[in-house]
Amino acid sequence: IRNPDDETQCSACPQGTLPNAERSQCLSIPEVYLRPDTGWAIGAMSFSTIGILLTFAVLGVFLQHNDTPVVRASGRELSYVLLSGILLCYMVSFLFVLRPTDIVCGVQQTAIGLCFSVVYAALFTKTNRIARIFRGGKKSAGRPGLISPKSQLVICGGLVTVQGLILLAWLWISPSVAKHVHPTREDNLLVCSS
């Protein structure tokens, strides 16, 4: 912009601003971030909504046939944990269309890892239980330990707790913050950065 004291001198506008047409003042560049009305956001939210509805449909089927041998044999409690983790994974995508703030960025940073850890902990616990049952059947006729539904939930909860503590430590050490990034002079991107 033109220097008000000396018409022959110019000064540069700070990052995130551009001069007006008269070159007399700096105007802010509008922030750019993923908004709910963009095509990418609508596509992601539509996919997530379908996933949420399908997850609720599967949950309804599980609840309707709760006492059948197939549902009981599949590990009813861990199946509900797995379905809740899948539901949370679909719901997290709605966080990404919010305007980035320090709080939203922190929730995004921890929610993704926590949701997936619920899913993977349930799958790991179910797989480990089946492996121990088959391995125990070869060694002795007795029932292996820690295969009751309650112990399976404790194991799964322990795994999720460890992941949660790691995520909280990561958030404490390197918090995610909303930050303006200017890849070019005309851009003003609002992104989450750690």
TrEMBL record:
GO terms for molecular function: G protein-coupled receptor activity. Residues 40-194 form the G-protein coupled receptors family 3 profile domain. The chain crosses the membrane at residues 40-63, 78-98, 110-131, 152-173. Gene3D superfamilies: GPCR, family 3, nine cysteines domain (2.10.50.30). InterPro entries: GPCR_3, GPCR_3_9-Cys_sf, GPCR_3_C, mGluR. One of its GO terms (cellular component) is membrane. It is found in: Membrane. Keywords: Glycoprotein, Membrane, Receptor, Transmembrane, Transmembrane helix. Pfam families: 7tm_3. It is a multi-pass membrane protein. This is Glutamate receptor, metabotropic.
